[in-house]
Design brief:
By secondary structure, the protein is α/β, with parallel strands linked by helices. The chain has two domains: 201 residues, Rossmann fold (3-Layer(aba) Sandwich), CATH 3.40.50.720; 86 residues, Alpha-Beta Complex (UDP-galactose 4-epimerase, domain 1), CATH 3.90.25. The protein contains ten helices and 13 strands. The chain starts with a strand and ends with a helix.
Length: 319
């Protein structure tokens, strides 16, 4: 079976490719925007296609070349602060990429299953009465990234209704793990701790808002959810991918500091604050569980330990 993963060089895309390869019986085609971006551990195991998905013709060629039975659309601009700095590019990348895939399928008269990966940021402004967030919660995004993903999801649903495309929408909540970009919270903490442990920076850790409570899931559990949704999900449906538990950022940091065991001063940095931040986010993934049997398996402390060990190895490798 041919599978196409857009954004295969990204944090989640690379884990998804590893998971699917371990299951066997798949030929994976991965879209990267330019040569040289495929992770070394995937070299020789996937077919790499270079394509800018904001280019409709390039997208059509990529889909035609892969001839996939399943498309996992993960490519996009994933960073909320960057979406405030450059909202136009975020909207263009995240919306046009999906649209061009749908148009390519119509032009090719192809009918693969298409998993369109959104985000809990689509829900945006929420109240206590909204919690836990279900797929029926109104979408009130509070940042351009959330807007772009909401638009992407609406396009997926619209093309399912108007052209019969076999689309499924996923709304993952905060997912973390080794190899995540240091711009994201747990990676930022772990990288600083690893550098402090090796004397590469003062024993002061720069942080943003520590009082927010978020729903964290290990990326390795998340990609398993994607694969199960591709196999068992209902066309046109939308599914949350969430643990159902909220953890304060401060508690997450304390677990990382405990794993390090050294004295580190925590310093709040106003530049790391978002213009608007929701105090509590927790999701309900019961619809996904009912459809696929999925539930998280990896404990948070294990995830955090793996993240810290990854950044320790990265720091040592850079010496």
């Amino acid at each position: 079976m041919n599978v196409l993963i857009t954004g295969i060089n990204g944090f989640v895309g690379s884990y998804l490719a590893e998971y699917l390869l371990a299951q066997g019986k798949v030929q994976i085609w991965g879209v990267t925007r330019a040569p040289g971006r495929l992770p070394p551990f995937l070299a020789g195991q996937v077919h790499e296609i270079h394509a800018d998905l904001t280019d409709a013709a390039a997208t059509l060629r990529a889909v035609e070349q892969a001839a996939p039975a399943v498309i996992y659309h993960l490519a996009g601009q994933p960073f909320v602060p960057e979406s405030f700095r450059d909202p136009a590019a975020t909207l263009q990348t995240n919306t046009l990429g999906a649209l061009h895939i749908f148009l390519a399928l119509i032009a090719l008269q192809a009918s693969p299953r298409v998993l369109v990966v959104g985000t809990n940021e689509e829900y945006g402004f929420i109240t206590q009465a909204d919690l836990p967030l279900t797929e029926q919660t109104p979408l009130r995004p509070t940042n351009p990234y959330g807007v772009s993903k909401a638009a992407q999801g609406l396009l997926a649903y619209q093309y399912h209704l108007s052209h019969g495309l076999d689309t499924i929408r996923l709304r993952p909540f905060t997912h973390i793990g080794p190899r995540q970009n240091e711009r994201f919270v747990t990676a930022a903490f772990a990288r600083q701790i690893a550098r402090i442990e090796h004397g590469l920076q003062p024993a002061t850790l720069q942080v943003g808002n520590l009082s927010a409570r978020r729903d964290f899931t290990d990326v390795r559990d998340v990609v398993r959810a994607y694969a199960l949704a591709a196999e068992n999900g209902e066309a046109g449906a939308v599914y949350n991918v969430a643990s159902g538990q909220a953890v304060m950022i401060r508690d997450l940091l304390d677990m990382l500091l405990e794993a390090s065991g050294i004295e580190i001063e925590v310093c709040q940095n106003s530049e790391l604050m978002r213009p608007i931040d929701i105090p509590l986010v927790v999701g309900d993934a019961s619809r996904l569980h009912e459809a696929t049997g999925w539930q998280p398996q990896i404990p948070l402390r294990q995830t955090l330990g793996d993240i810290l060990d990854f950044w320790r190895a990265q720091v040592v490798a850079s010496l």
